From TrEMBL:
Domain of life per record: Bacteria
Protein name: AMP-binding protein
Region: Disordered, residue numbers: 356-379
Domain AMP-dependent synthetase/ligase stretches: 3-393
Domain AMP-binding enzyme C-terminal: residue ranges: 448-523
Native organism: Actinotalea lenta
Length: 537
C-alpha cells in the first residue's frame, strides 16, 4: 500500500509532525534507509522488532521499515512500567527494540529477562522542524519544559538511532517483500480473558481492514488529511493512522499525544478532513475550538471507537464541524474494525452499526455458539471476515477458545453481548465478563452507567460487581461527582435508578472517587476499579 501511494502521489505530504513535513517520495527514501539499517543489524524475515515510541514521524518510518523487511512489528506503550514491558518483550521474543529516550532506562533494566540483542534510543526531537529543534536549547522555562517532555539521558552503551540511520545504506528495491499471510504485527491485548497476550495480525489482515475502511468512507486516494492523535501502539490508532493512511495516500497530521492546543495548531496550519478518536477527544476538541474560535468546518467525518459514543457528544461535534460523527466497533483481534454506522443520514447513534464489507456477524447463545438467538434477544457477537486474526502468539489453547468453526467458516467469539435490531443494526449491551449476576439476575453495567450519567450530580461512573454473599454479587457504583457537587446520597442514586432500571440493577453501594482509571485511549478500566474497591475493603 505504501509503495502504491509513493508511485501515485510522490509529491503529496505524507506526514506533518508539529510542522515538519515529509512527502511520500521522501518517506519512501527514509523507509528504505531505515530498513537497510535494520538489516545491517541482523534483522531478518520473521524477527520481532519492538517499537516503544510515542506518535512521531520516526514511528511511521520504523513501522513501515520493519514490515518491508518481513520482520514482525511489536508495538508497546512507551509509558508502561519496566515490569509490563518485560512481560511483553519476553513473550514476543523481540531481538531488537527501538525505544524513546524517556523509556530506554526501563527497557535496559529488564533486558536480561528478554531475548533483546539491541536496544536503540530514539530522539523524538530530531523529528521537529529545525526552528523548533533549535528553540529547545534556549535558556527559558518553556524550552526546558518542552525538552524535558521529549528527551532524556541515555544510559551508557545504548546507541542512538539518528546516528545509525545517518550512515546506513538503503535497502535494495529488489529485496523480497513479505507474503500476504506472513505475520506483520503482534499487538498485545487483554483479549476476552484479561490476560495480556499477543494478537497475531497478518499483512492480509492489515491490508483488508484498510481496504474495508476505504470502502466504508468512500475516500478517494490522495484527498484526505487525517489527524494522527490516537496512539499508534494501539490497534485503533495503528489501523486508522498508519495502514489506512497509506491505503488512501492521505496526509497524516501527527501529534505526539492528544492535546487540544497541539491539535488546534495543526488545524490552523493544515485543515483536517477526517478525525478518528474516542468520545472524550471529540468533546474536548469541540469545546476548545469554540473557546479559541478555531473553525473545524473542514472536518467532514469523524469515527469514534473504544467506548460508547454519547448522543450529546455526537450532536455537539456535528454542530461544530457540519460533518458526521459515527460509531465503529472492533477489537485488536479484528485488526481492529468489524462494524460501523453508515457515514450518511442513515446512521443510528448509540449502536455499533452494521458489519463492514466482506464481514459477517452472528448473535448466538453464549453457552452454545452454534445456536443463533432471535432478533431482539441478547446474545454473544461472533464475527468472521478477512480482518479476523489467526490466533494468539504461542497460545494455541486460548486461540482455540475464541476461534470456532461453524458452517465451514471461522468465527471470532468477541465476548460482547449485543442485541440485533431492525435493519441489521447491532447494539452493545455489555462484555460477558463484566456482566454482574446478583440474586440470579443478570445486570449489564453499561446500561446502569448510561442511566446514572444522566443524573446531574454525577460526572462519570463505573459499575462493577463485588462479592455479595447470598446474592452472589452486589452492584456497586464508583462515581465522580459533577463540578459544584459536594456529595450525593445512595438513596438519591437509587431513586434516580427507579426511573429506568429494574430493582435488582440498582446500586447497593456507592463509592466516590476523584477520577476513574482509564486506558491510554480513555476507556474506563472496570477491572481496575473493581480491584481498587476490593483492596479498600
Amino acid at each position: 500500500m505504501l509503495d502504491e501511494a509513493v508511485r501515485d502521489f510522490p509529491a503529496r505530504i505524507a506526514t506533518d509532525f508539529l510542522g515538519a513535513v515529509t512527502t511520500y517520495d521522501a518517506l519512501a527514501r527514509r523507509v528504505a534507509r531505515a530498513a537497510g539499517a535494520l538489516a545491517a543489524m541482523g534483522v531478518r524475515r520473521g524477527d520481532r522488532v519492538a517499537l516503544v515510541l510515542p506518535n512521531s514521524a520516526t514511528h511511521v518510518v520504523l513501522f513501515h521499515a520493519a514490515l518491508r523487511l518481513g520482520a514482525i512489528v511489536v508495538e508497546h506503550n512507551p509509558t508502561y512500567s519496566a515490569t509490563e514491558l518485560a512481560h511483553q518483550l519476553a513473550d514476543s521474543g523481540a531481538t531488537l527494540a527501538l525505544v524513546w529516550e524517556k523509556a530506554v532506562a526501563r527497557v535496559v533494566q529488564v533486558r536480561d529477562q528478554t531475548a533483546l540483542r539491541h536496544v536503540i534510543a530514539v530522539n523524538l526531537a530530531a523529528d521537529l522542524p529545525a526552528v523548533k529543534r533549535a528553540a529547545l536549547h534556549l535558556p527559558v522555562r518553556q524550552a526546558r519544559q518542552t525538552r524535558a517532555s521529549m528527551r532524556d539521558r541515555v544510559p551508557a552503551g545504548v546507541p542512538r538511532w539518528d546516528r545509525i540511520v545517518r550512515h546506513a545504506t538503503a535497502l535494495p528495491s529488489e529485496h523480497p517483500h513479505p507474503e500476504l499471510d506472513d505475520t506483520a504485527l503482534l499487538q498485545y491485548t487483554g483479549g476476552t480473558t484479561g490476560t495480556p497476550k499477543g494478537a497475531v495480525l497478518t499483512h492480509r489482515n492489515l491490508a483488508a481492514n484498510a481496504a474495508q475502511g476505504q470502502a466504508w468512507t468512500g475516500h478517494e486516494r490522495g484527498s484526505q488529511t487525517i489527524l494522527g492523535a490516537l496512539p499508534f501502539f494501539h490497534a485503533f490508532g495503528m489501523t486508522l493512522c498508519l495502514s489506512y493512511a497509506a491505503r488512501t495516500a492521505a496526509t497524516l497530521v501527527v501529534v505526539p499525544r492528544f492535546d487540544t492546543e497541539l491539535v488546534l495548531d495543526a488545524q490552523r496550519r493544515r485543515p483536517l478532513t477526517f478525525v478518528p478518536g474516542v468520545p472524550p477527544m471529540f468533546e474536548r476538541l469541540a469545546a476548545a475550538a469554540a473557546d479559541a474560535r478555531v473553525d473545524l468546518g473542514s472536518i467532514r467525518y469523524g469515527i469514534s471507537g473504544a467506548m460508547s459514543l454519547p448522543a450529546q457528544t455526537a450532536q455537539t461535534w456535528e454542530r461544530a464541524t457540519g460533518g458526521l460523527l459515527i460509531e465503529g466497533y472492533g477489537m485488536t483481534e479484528t485488526s481492529p474494525v468489524a462494524l460501523g454506522s453508515p457515514l450518511s443520514p442513515d446512521r443510528r447513534p448509540g449502536t455499533l452499526g452494521v458489519p463492514f464489507p466482506s464481514t459477517y456477524a452472528r448473535v448466538v447463545d453464549p453457552d452454545d455458539p452454534t445456536r443463533p438467538v432471535p432478533p431482539g434477544e441478547r446474545g454473544e457477537l461472533l464475527v468472521s471476515g478477512p480482518q479476523v486474526f489467526p490466533g494468539y502468539w504461542n497460545r494455541p489453547e486460548e486461540s482455540a477458545a475464541v476461534l470456532v468453526e461453524i458452517d465451514g467458516r471461522t468465527w471470532l467469539r468477541t465476548g460482547d453481548v449485543v442485541v440485533r435490531e431492525d435493519g441489521g443494526f447491532l447494539r452493545l449491551v455489555d462484555r460477558i465478563k463484566d456482566v454482574i449476576i446478583t440474586g440470579g439476575y443478570n445486570v449489564y453495567p453499561s446500561q446502569v452507567e448510561d442511566h446514572l450519567r444522566t443524573m446531574p450530580e454525577i460526572a462519570d461512573v463505573a459499575v462493577v460487581g463485588l462479592p455479595g454473599g447470598d446474592l452472589g454479587e452486589r452492584v456497586v457504583a464508583a462515581i465522580v461527582l459533577a463540578e459544584g457537587t459536594s456529595r450525593v446520597e445512595l438513596a438519591a442514586v437509587r431513586a434516580w435508578s427507579d426511573r429506568a432500571l429494574a430493582r435488582y440493577a440498582h446500586p447497593r453501594d456507592l463509592v466516590v472517587l476523584p477520577d476513574l482509571p482509564r486506558s491510554q485511549i480513555g476507556k474506563v478500566l472496570r477491572r481496575v476499579v473493581r480491584e481498587q474497591l476490593i483492596d479498600r475493603g
